[in-house]
Amino acid sequence: QVQLVESGGGLVQPGGSLRLSCVASGSIVSSYAMAWYRQAPGKQRELVATITKSGSTNYADSVKGRFSISKDNAKNTVYLQMNSLRPEDTAVYYCSRGGMYDLAPRYWGQGTQVTVSS
Length: 118
Known about the structure:
four-stranded antiparallel β-sheet, seven-stranded mixed β-sheet, 1 helix, mainly beta
């Protein structure tokens, strides 16, 4: 059974940084595409960043240059480093597992809340 457990969310001031972690069960991270999504209150869930099993990354325009996705295959963990945070980054952030050769999400974590406020 696939399990994804996010952590690292919290309250941060504008301009601050947070690093989210997603620990996956089994050898998921080395074998599948992984992604971070977010959902703000009253809005649809949106894609934030993706990383393929080979390590190629892609980002939503709204976070390019500020966020960085990475992974540690040995630890079965995916990270999202978030810098220069803005109030509009406030959302629940979700980790997802895609397919071996595509990014469509198959499984989700429970989410971690990120709040950017002074």
